[in-house]
Amino acid sequence: MPNQPTHPVELDSVSRHHGTGEHAVRALDGVGLRFARATLTAVMGPSGSGKTTLLHCAAGLDRPTAGRVVVDGTDLTGLDEHALTLLRRDRIGIVFQAFNLVSALTAAQNVALPLRLAGRRPDPGQVALALDRVGLADRADHRPSALSGGQQQRVAIARALIVEPAVLLADEPTGSLDTGTSRAVLALLRELVDRHGQTVIMVTHDPAAAAWADRVVLLADGRVADDLHGRTDAATIARRTASPEVPA
Ligand code: ADP
Ligand code: MG
């Protein structure tokens, strides 16, 4: 694709405050981060440190109080709700801990849903390819209740990828899965990055999950407390998250 930005997501001095005065909660407080194309970044930090807020700001689901977010070369700041909705629909894929599949629809119908919502006729080949990419070509006609948790999450990932988003955002994607199933989902995210050039930002509290990432961003009180570039082993990540101010 021509003119693909080198950094599909950029946060420039992003703050998100709730309330004002002495009761103000600084969910994000001057966060500056750029996420490079074809990388997997893990965002970590204690509960309440701003991880979900960061992801929601990157997804255009929440608006910063100050600063700007640029997704796929577009500054979200000036966009009205309609333009934001279109950008979210066409350029951003989101995966949640709870899968959020439609229980009455088959895997293939779930994957095709974003295209239908966009008023596009789903191409069966495209849907089959998306399911194949997550290793579920043979489960196309299964409803979510007939799939394991890991399989449901892979359907959710296929659904997020069907529009070929500039970035895939995942909030605790393995938070509801056991260790073995988590590994399969993380291996899939890794493969999407390595083989298909997908950019992925994943919130996790699990050092073992973050060890799959190319970079680990550590938040504390709405600020970037640490930023580890390159693959880092789980033990080191666990040590850093326990005491981010102590150098390794
Ligand atoms: P995390 O995902 O790391 O647990 P969040 O981004 O959900 O953290 O929240 C960061 C901080 O912002 C927390 O202190 C949380 O209580 C606060 N917060 C989040 N959303 C709201 C809101 N709508 N109103 C008030 N405070 C909020
Ligand atoms: Mg959260």
Strand content: 15-25%
Question: Which ligands, by name, code or SMILES, are bound?
Answer: adenosine-5'-diphosphate, magnesium ion
CATH architecture of the domain at 9-99 and 166-242: 3-Layer(aba) Sandwich
Task: Work out the number of β strands.
Answer: 10
What gap, in angstroms, lies between the N and C termini?
Answer: 40 Å
**Using only CA atoms, what is the Rg?**
18 Å
In CATH, the topology of the domain at 9-99 and 166-242 is named Rossmann fold
Trace the largest sheet across and list its strands.
Answer: 6-7-8-3-9-10
Helix content: 25-40%
Spans of at least 5 consecutive residues whose pLDDT stays below 50 are none
What this model shows, in words?
It is a single chain. This protein is an alpha/beta fold and 248 residues long. The protein has a domain at 9-99 and 166-242: P-loop containing nucleotide triphosphate hydrolases (Rossmann fold), CATH 3.40.50. It has helices at 51-59, 81-91, 107-117, 124-133, 149-161, 179-196, 207-210, 234-242, and strands spanning 9-18, 25-35, 40-44, 66-71, 74-75, 92-96, 167-171, 200-203, 215-220, 223-229. A six-stranded mixed beta sheet has the order 6-7-8-3-9-10, with helices on both faces. Strands 2-1-4-5 form a four-stranded antiparallel beta sheet, with helices on one face. Helix 3 (107-117) packs across helix 4 (124-133), helix 3 (107-117) runs parallel beside helix 5 and helix 4 (124-133) packs across helix 5 (149-161). The structure holds adenosine-5'-diphosphate and magnesium ion. Residues 18, 25, 27, 45, 47-53 line the site of adenosine-5'-diphosphate.
